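Sequence decides. Our protein:
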Amino acid sequence: MAHTVALPLVSKGVNDLLLWRVPAKSAAVVGGATAAYLILEWSGLSIISIGANALLLLVAAAFVWNNVAGFIGK
């Protein structure tokens, strides 16, 4: 008699990912997290500085889009 293990408060997709029911997807997530960690380690940047620069880029893009949209009438 087999029992099904389920984690509380997570969706079925996250549950399958965390319990390695789809090994290819779980391995891809672990590999991606490892690659992100190594890139952060070797670059010498912190996650805060990368996040701040990403938000700054997002604000600049929204500003430019707002001005362009005003010129083209959208």
Summary: The mean pLDDT is 88.
